[in-house]
Amino acid sequence: MASDEVLAALGVEGSTAAAHALSLPAEAYGNDPQLEVMWAMKAYNHAEVYFNLISSVDPKFLKLTKLDDQIYSSFRETFKDLNIKLLNADELKSDEAKERWRPYCNQFEGLVEDFNYGTLLRLDCEKDYTEENTIFATRIQFYAVEIARNREGCNEAVFTSRSCKS
User: Fold this and answer.
1) Which of 20, 32, 59, 112 has the most CB within a 10 Å radius?
2) Residue 115: exposure state from Cβ atoms within 10 A (0-12, 13-18, ≥19)
3) What is the pLDDT of residues 64-123, one digit of tens each?
4) Beta bridge partners of 86
């Protein structure tokens, strides 16, 4: 079922309740499966909107946040050699990687809204979001990688392949 169909099925009251539930602090919940589904839907919606955006607008002109310049320069200072075209999950998730990412991410606390929210990130930038090509990352990791992909021309393949089909 598509995300818009799910939201429509919830109705106004259900959608409002879901939005309210997602705005509460994490401490208000245990491991509630319904909450996990709502977070997954929110992450999926974000991914879908972003992919549609880079498919229809030349990514080199996109600005994802007010702090794109700072996010990008700090990212490339910290992760000079990270292959953003084809990410390896270990470069984001291994214990060693987490130690490198933590200080990078935390510098944006209070500056980038929802900097540590879960977000879907494509491993291969030339492909769509699929189960095999997607990893769960924090919002600031998503911004760092996607801003770099946009500026370095890596998302150009998505834009040109979609615009050629139109």
Assistant:
1) 59
2) buried
3) 999 999 999 999 999 999 999 999 999 999 999 999 999 999 999 999 999 998 899 999
4) 124
- Structural tokens at position 78: 């910290």
**CA Rg value for the chain:** 17
Residue among 118, 132, 154, 156 nearest 35 (CA): 118
119 token code pair: 């977000």
Q: Both tokens of residue 23?
A: 């705005």
Provide the CATH number for the domain formed by 31-165 in this structure.
1.10.3560.10
What pTM was computed for the model?
0.77
Helix (H) or strand (E) segment spanning residue 135: strand 134-138
Interatomic CA distance for residues 149 and 146, integer angstroms: 5
* Residue extents of the structural domains in the chain: 31-165
Whether 1 has a pLDDT exceeding 50, the answer reads: no
Which residue carries 């470069």 as its tokens?
Answer: 91
